[in-house]
Each structure stands twice: as C-alpha cells, then as structure tokens.
Amino acid sequence: MTGYIVRRLLYGVLILLGVNLFTFVLFFAVNTPDDMARLAIGGQRVSADAVEKWKVERGYDKPLFLNVKQEGVKKYTETIFYQRSVPLLTFDFGASDEGRDIGREIKARMWPSLALAVPTFVLGLALSIAFSLMLVFFRTTALDFWGVVACVVMLSISSLFYIIAGQWLFSKILRLVPYSGFAGGWDTLKFLALPIIVAVIAGLGSEARFLRSLFLEEIGKDYVRTARAKGLSERVVLFKHVLRNALLPILTGAVASLPLLFMGSLISESFFGIPGLGSYTLDALSGQDFSIVRAMVFLGSSLYIVGLIMADISYTLADPRVRFE
Predict the structure, then answer these.
(1) Contact between residue 287 and residue 39 where contact means Cβ atoms under 8 Å apart
(2) Which of 159, 288, 295, 307 could bond to 93 as cystine, CB 3.0-4.6 Å?
(3) What DSSP line would sit under 62-104, residue for residue?
(4) Cβ neighbours of residue 259 under 8 Å, at least 6 residues apart?
(5) What's the rounded Cα separation, in Å, for the pair 230 and 6?
(6) Domains of the chain: which residue ranges?
(7) Which residues contact 262 (CB under 8 A, 6 or more apart)?
(8) Is pLDDT of 296 > 70?
(9) pLDDT (tens digit, 9 = 90+) per residue, 115-160?
(10) Residue 53 and residue 36: Cα distance in Å, rounded?
C-alpha cells in the first residue's frame, strides 16, 4: 500500500510538471508580454515607454525560457518561466499582475468557498441517495416513473435558470433571504441559504438518475436474490445490502471531489456576490490577470490529483477485498 501511494505521488509530480509547462506555453502563445501590458494599461494606443515600464515592474521584461545575455545558471533563472512558473511547484504563488499577494488572497477567499461548497456537497449527496433509493424502492410504479421524468427535466435545465428563479422567488417575491452578498458570523447563514438550496436542486437530477441506475444494477445481482430467498424484507435488502455494496462507486466520486470543494463555484459565487475562489478566478479571467489564472489552474490540478489518490485509498475502507500490491 505504501509503495502504491509513493508511485501515485511521483506520477502526480510528473503530471504537475506537465500542467505547469503546458499552461505557461499556452498563455504566452496566446498573449505576449506586450499584449498583456496593453490589456492591463487599457488599450492599443499605449506608448512603448508605458509598456516597457509595466513589464519591468512585473518581471515580464525578461526572455521566456533562455536568457542569452546572462552566463551560467542565470541563463535559465533570469527568465519569465523560472521566476513566474517554477515557484508554483513549491506552492509559492507570487504576486498578481496588479501586485497583490495571490497566496494571501487564496487564504482569505477559501473560507467563503468552503462555507458554500461543503454544505452543498453533503446535502446534495444525502438528498440524491435518499431520493434515488426511494425511486428504486417504488420501482415500476407511478412514483418511479414521474420521479425519473422529474430528474430528466431537472438535468435538462441550465443552472443559470435555477439561480435566476431562486433569486426572483425567495429574494424578490418572498423576501426571505438577501439577493446577493456575504457577511461574517451568523449572518453567513442567511447569505448562503439560497446559493446552497439552488446548487442542491440544480445537481439533484443528474446525481439521482445516476444513483438510481447504480442501485438498479445492484438489485439484479445474485446476492440480492439470495437475501430475498432467506426471507429478508425489501427494505432490509435495499438499505443494508444494496446500499452498502454500491458504496464503492459512490465513494469514488465523493472522495475525488472533496479537495475540489476548495476551489469554489464560478457561477454561484459570481451571481450571489460571494468573495470566494470561484469568483476570484472569474474576475482574473475577465481582467486578463494571467498570474492568478495560472496559479488557480495549478492549484486545481494539485487538488484533483490528491482527490484521486484519496479515492484509491478509500477503496480499501469500503471494500476490504481491495488491496494494492
């Protein structure tokens, strides 16, 4: 098991190296430092001196990969890649193109993201499992039929519709919660109630439909027929045997997505005015701040790799028969 984890971590390091190099090449293939300076300053009719000053202040006046004007190791260290991308490998995110500390921004914004993402994840998973088990328990009945229809309708509707409809109904008409915004302390609950409800409802259709198919597949297996032949009730078979044996694929998706909760939600945070990492990334994209975007891409890749390793390890907890040699 230890050897397997070490190998996965080494593979993860190689993947992060590739992601770092690929994102750097991609960003600077689309925009040169001169283009970035003009975008930041505000237009194409910018003097060459202003462009050069912006590049010098942010370290973009150096070559990308190789500085032929330097000697020895400085040929590689006095470059944009070494000074702006290599520190990401040690999770030193540096400063944004506007001069703000990215690491400090991430630490400040991760708590609003987690406050939104964790309850959404827990409530969404619990509600999806409960709803799909109810449909399976009443399978081949009218309740099952209309439940599947409701799932298809829900997953066919854009999440933007749920956000706009939720704001219109609960904020404008009923005036139960604020339209948008964020505050600390106990006031956080009233600002996060609507985003959490909207996110849970928006994801219920696809999750419940997938879990229903998973449970129906388990019901057709031999151990279920054996349990029924022993006289166990359908409720005991469903909740004690089927649910337990279906935990492995559920655990795979759940554990793998846990680290990504840190990253927040792009759409929800932007629409509801929550100062989390999702809105931070979206603002960086709209503002053409490529330092923030590269940092968030690298952070997201790191968390995804950690999630996959956690999912593999959790296999042994859900099914003791699984061992990694």
Answers:
(1) no
(2) 295
(3) S-SS--TTS-TTHHHHSSHHHHHTGGGGGT---B-TTS-BHHH
(4) 303, 304, 306, 307, 310
(5) 45
(6) 2-90, 104-318
(7) 110, 113, 114, 117, 277, 299, 303
(8) yes
(9) 888 899 899 999 999 999 899 888 889 999 999 999 999 988 888 8
(10) 12
Contact 190, 178 (CB under 8 A): yes
Q: How far is CA 73 from CA 24, 143, 177, in A?
A: 21, 70, 59
CA gap 276, 270 in Å, rounded: 9
Specify the amino acid at residue 195. P
Give CA–CA dist 87/16, Å, rounded. Answer: 12
Inter-residue contact 112 to 265 (CB < 8 Å) = no
Rounded Cα distance, 213 and 152, in Å: 13
Average pLDDT estimate for 25-52: 76
Name the β-bridge partners of 101. 95
Do 20 and 89 contact (CB within 8 A), yes or no?
Answer: yes
CA atoms lying within 13 Å on the CB side of residue 145: 3
Question: Which DSSP string corresponds to 262-291?
Answer: GG--HHHHHHTT--SHHHHHHHHHHTT-HH
> Which residue's entry shows tokens 């959490």?
196
Q: Which CATH class is domain 104-318?
A: mainly alpha
Residue 321 backbone phi and psi in degrees, to 5: -70, -20
Q: What is the mean pLDDT of residues 210-227?
A: 86
* Res 180: pLDDT: 81
Distance CA 212, CA 183 (A): 38
Query: Which residue, chain included where needed, has tokens 């909740």?
Result: 239
- Give the residue among 115, 131, 273, 112 at the shortest CA–CA distance from 201: 131
